[in-house]
C-alpha cells in the first residue's frame, strides 16, 4: 500500500486530498482483509473484495453505511491497488477486476420554470447606486441573459472576450471543456442585454482597469471571475425569492425548456457541447415529468 500510494503521489501526481482519501480507504481495506485472515495481497480473492464492498454499504459498529458514490470511490482505490500489485508481480491475478462499483442513483438536473427564469432575469439588475451601480446592473442582466439564452456554462461565459461575440448574426464562440470550441446562437433578449452592456456599462467598468479583451468585467476593470459570476447569480436569486439556484441552473433550464418546446435531443447536445448524446438524454427524463403533469390535469380518466 505504501508503495502504491508513493506511485500515485510521485508518478501520477495526485492531489493531496485525493491521496488522503485513498490512504483512508485502503487502511480500512487492509483492516477488513486482515480480519479475514489475509496477510498478503496475493491471498485476497474476488469474494474478499466483494465482501468488503458489501461491508461498506451496510456499515458496522465503527463505520456508518456509505452511499453508492462513497463506496464506489473506495472501490476505485482498491481496484487501483490490485492492478498495481499485479503489474509489480506481487499477485498472480487481479482479484478486484470483476468487482464493479455500485451505480449511484441518477439525479435529475435542477431546472426552474419559465416564470421563475423571468423573475430571476428581472431581478438581475438590482438597485442602481450611481454610475458604477448602473453599470454593474447592466452587466449582471447581460450575464444572466446570456447564460440562459445560450446554455453556456458559467465558466464559458466569463471566459468570453468581446471579440467572441457577433451580435449582428446572433452567435458567440465559447471554449468548452478540454478547450473544445463551439458556436452557440444568442437569442434576441440576450443580444439586446449584451449590446446595452457593451455600449453603456463596459466602458465605465473598464476605466478602473488597464483594459483587456474580457467581455464581462469586475469593479476593478479585470475579467469577472467564476466566483464573481456566481455571486451575481446568487444575489439575483435572493431578490427574486428563489432558493437552490446553482451556477448550472440556467444551463439546465435552457436544455429542459428547449426539449419541452420540441427541440431534437441531438441539437440540444450540440448547443450544450456534450461529447455524447447520452449525457444530454438525462434532460429527457425531466420533460417526462411535464408529460405526466399535463396528462394528469388534462385527461378525463387520468385520476382514479
Characterise the protein shown here.
- By secondary structure, this protein is mainly alpha-helical.
- It folds into two domains: 2-87, Orthogonal Bundle (DNA polymerase, domain 1), CATH 1.10.150.130; 114-244, hpI Integrase, Chain A, CATH 1.10.443.10.
- The protein has 13 helices and three strands, in the order αααααααβββαααααα.
- It has helices at 2-10, 16-35, 46-58, 68-87, 114-122, 130-150, 154-158, 188-200, 202-206, 226-240, 249-260, 265-272, 277-298, and strands at residues 165-166, 171-175, 181-185.
- It has a three-stranded antiparallel beta sheet.
- Helix 2 crosses helix 4 (68-87), helix 5 (114-122) crosses helix 10 and helix 6 crosses helix 11.
- The chain is globular.
- The model has no long low-confidence stretch (mean pLDDT 88).
Q: Give the amount of beta strand, in percent.
A: under 5%
CATH architecture of the largest domain: Orthogonal Bundle
Uncertain stretches:
none
Q: Domains counted in the coordinates: how many?
A: 2
Domain Core-binding (CB): 1-86
Protein name: Tyrosine recombinase XerD
Keywords: Cell cycle, Cell division, Chromosome partition, Cytoplasm, DNA integration, DNA recombination, DNA-binding
Active site: 153, 177, 248, 251, 274, 283 (o-(3'-phospho-dna)-tyrosine intermediate)
